[in-house]
Every structure is written in C-alpha cells, then in structure tokens.
Write a structure and sequence with these properties.
By secondary structure, the protein is an alpha+beta fold. 47% of the residues lie in helices and 22% in strands. The strands form 2 sheets. A 5-stranded antiparallel beta sheet has the order 2-3-1-4-5. The longest helix is centred in the middle third of the chain and has 27 residues, at 163-189. The radius of gyration is 21 Å and the shape is globular.
Length: 293
C-alpha cells in the first residue's frame, strides 16, 4: 500500500487497525501509518543541465514548494494564511529537507517529520480515527496518491463546532490547492529540461513547454475588493514614504501590495502608518491584478 493510491476499502481497514492498536502517543501513531503510506515528494529532472546539478530557477521552485507548505501550516495553526506569524522555531520544525541523488537530479523530500509535528501541534486532542484520516489525507495530497475528497468531507462532518477542526479542514484544502501550484512552479523552474517526473506524473519536453506557454497566456484582469486587513510587512522609500506592504486577512491570505502615497491625502496616510506601527486592523479598498484564480 505504501507507494500506491489508497482505496476507500483500504482506508477503512487501516483506520480500524489504528483503533484496535490503541496508540497512546502521536509518535507511535505516525510511525504505524507512515510505514504503510508514503510521505515522500520526489522530483526527477532529465536534461543537460541536470547531472547532479540544477539552475537557480529550479532552486526557486523548491523555495516556492516550501512556502506553499508554510501557508497551509499557518492556516492550521492560526486560522489565517500569514507567514509572518510563523516563528523561526516553527519554520524550522516544518522545514522540508531536499536531498539530491548522485548521478542525476532526483530531489526527494520526506514530509514525515513535518506531519509528526503537525500531529503534535494541531491534532493532539483529536480521537484516533480523526488523526488517522487526517494523516492519510496529508500523505495522499503531497504524494499525488489519488486523494479522494471523501477524506476531507469526513473531517468536515466531525466536531463541526470545534475551531480546531475548521482550521484543519481549511489547511488540508490549502495543501491540496497548492499541489497544482507546486507542479507549475517546478515546470517553470525547469523550462529547458528534457523530462520532469513529479512523483508518478511524467512531463516530457513538449509538456513542459506547453505548461509554461499556457501559464503565460492566462490573461490578467483587474478587480476591486474592500475588507479589513492587517499590514504584516511594510517597506519604505529612501525619503521615508511607504512603498509597498503585505496585507493579510482570514478571507484572502497574504497579498503583496503597492501603496502610492501621491494618491492619498495626509489623513489617510496617517491611518496607514498607525495601522503599521500599532498593528491595528484597517479597512482598505484594493485593486487586484489577478491571473487565473
């Protein structure tokens, strides 16, 4: 079962095994489940620039995969997609280690350590069945092992009143959403490669080129939205005026924003500075430059 998709029947058998074992701690539970279901993300690249080496564009893809994972963790821990809230200690606990194989460019990262931490941080008060379904869901998402949304639906129907369960379900949704973004990031980072394999998905040279062309053809559109945000990061020009900042809210996650003081009166600029200095929420209307979703 380790490297294949888990069927609903196999899932139920495994859950019953977990319950019958009566695990007293998360470490034993995780070890039992991850012995049966893979938690590895494997990326293999073929091409002249990928002989135990890779360009910086591919390194950027790995950074994007890490940041996407941090976003899901942030939602699970805090209920919002706010990387600023992840301390250095938390980032270290959820850091993915990418190992490059000799003789080729095969990069592998095992989520096992991170999922164990996830279990300790988020699921410590949950019953064994909920933990088992959650851990299986997480593993199936990152390995592309044929995730069935019935797993997520099960979580949604469990302890609906618990904020913890709501955050967990949203985090799983985010992790599932990120997989398409991770694939796009890898293919963008290996434009000149002959072939890319991401777990069981194989992309030849033509498929890599087509994916990048389609990404470039997705039209941009402008939209506006009004909401209450927190300004988590701000940068200024040399003369001290605000240049850009990063906004966050539970509804939107993090949004990088450009702020042109020339378009605002001094009273509004003072309100923005007050929100930055005192970490106050502020109501803003944004013009969004959107590509795809």
């Amino acid at each position: 079962m380790n490297d294949a998709a888990v069927t609903p029947q196999e899932l139920e058998v495994l859950i019953q095994e977990v319950i019958s074992q009566n695990f007293d701690d998360e470490e034993s539970l995780c070890a039992f489940i991850f012995d049966k279901v893979s938690t590895r993300l494997t990326i293999k690249i073929k091409g002249k620039d990928y002989q135990s080496s890779f360009p910086t564009s591919f390194a950027q893809s790995l950074i994007e995969i890490q940041n996407n994972f941090y976003r899901a963790v942030s939602i699970a821990l805090f209920g919002e997609e706010n990387l600023k809230r992840l301390t250095a200690e938390k980032r270290k606990q959820y850091e993915l280690i990418f190992i490059v194989s000799k003789g080729s460019t095969e990069v592998e990262s095992d989520y096992r350590k991170s999922f164990f931490q996830f279990c300790k941080d988020i699921m410590k008060d949950m019953p064994p069945k909920t933990k088992a379904v959650t851990l299986l869901t997480l593993a199936l998402i990152v390995t592309g092992g044929g995730l069935s949304y019935q797993y997520i639906n099960y979580l949604s129907d469990t302890d609906k009143e618990k904020q913890q369960t709501v955050r967990l379900t949203r985090a799983i949704d985010k992790l599932a959403e990120n997989q398409e973004r991770n694939i796009a990031a890898v293919l963008k980072g290996v434009r000149g490669a002959d072939e890319a394999t991401i777990n069981d998905q194989v992309f030849d040279k033509a498929a890599i080129a087509d994916a990048n062309q389609r990404a470039e053809r997705i039209p941009h559109q402008s939209d506006t939205t009004t909401g209450t945000f927190r300004i988590v990061i701000a940068s200024t020009k040399e003369q001290g005026s605000i240049d850009k900042f990063t906004l966050t809210s539970a509804e939107t996650g993090e949004i990088p924003s450009i702020f042109d003081e020339d378009n605002f009166n001094q009273e509004d600029i003072d309100k923005v500075w007050d929100a930055i200095k005192n970490k106050r929420p502020i109501q803003l209307t944004l013009t969004l430059d959107k590509q795809g979703d």
